[in-house]
Amino acid sequence: MESWKKPVNIKNVSPKEALPGIFIRTLTYNEDVTQCHFILKKGAKIPLHDHLFSQNGFIIKGKMKFITEKGEFTAVQGDSYIFNQWEKHGAEVLEDTELLETFSPTRKEYYPTDEQYLPNKDDFL
C-alpha cells in the first residue's frame, strides 16, 4: 500500500456515520498510522470497548466524557488524550464536538473506498 503523498483537505472527504450521531472522515493513513476527523453530536455514546490500536486524540471544540475501567474524565477544547492498546474505553458526548484521532497500528477498516467504509458498528469499535 502506498501512503498518501498529497495534502488531504477535510472539505474533500465525505463523512460517514459510524454510530448514531458520530461521523468520521479518514484523512491520511499509511502502514503505521491512521488519522481521522470526527464530528460527534451531543448525546451520542460510544460503548465501552477495547482494540489493538493505540488511540490518541485532540479536542478541536466541544466536550466529551470518557469512561475507562479505572474511572472517567472530561475533555474539552484544547485537551488531548490517549488510550493504550487493549485499554477499555468509551465516551458520552456532552456538547457537539469535533476532534482528531490518530490510531497505531493503522486501522485498515477505516481506509476510504468508493463504498461505505464502516460496514457495521463492530468495525468502528
Q: What keywords describe this structure?
A:
mainly beta, 1 helix, single chain, 8-stranded antiparallel beta sheet, 125 residues, 3% helix, 8 strands, globular
Quick synopsis:
The chain is mainly β and 125 residues long. It has one helix at residues 121-124, and strands spanning 16-19, 22-29, 34-40, 45-49, 54-68, 71-76, 80-83, 89-104. It is globular, with a radius of gyration of 14 Å.
Question: What is the topology?
Answer:
Elements: E1 16-19, E2 22-29, E3 34-40, E4 45-49, E5 54-68, E6 71-76, E7 80-83, E8 89-104, H1 121-124
Antiparallel strand pairs: 1-2, 2-3, 3-8, 4-8, 5-6, 5-7, 5-8
Explain what the structure shows.
This protein is mostly beta strands and about 120 residues long. The chain is about 5% helix and about 50% strand. Strands 1, 2, 3, 4, 5, 6, 7 and 8 form an eight-stranded antiparallel sheet that branches. The chain is globular, with a radius of gyration of 14 Å. The two termini are about 25 Å apart.
Order of helices and strands: EEEEEEEEH
Overall pLDDT score: 89
Query: Helix fraction?
Result: under 10%
The largest sheet is: 8 strands, antiparallel
Low-confidence runs: 114-121
How far the N terminus sits from the C terminus, by CA atoms, comes to 23 Å
Shape: globular
Number of strands: 8
Determine the structural class based on helices, strands and strand pairing: mainly beta
Strand content: over 45%
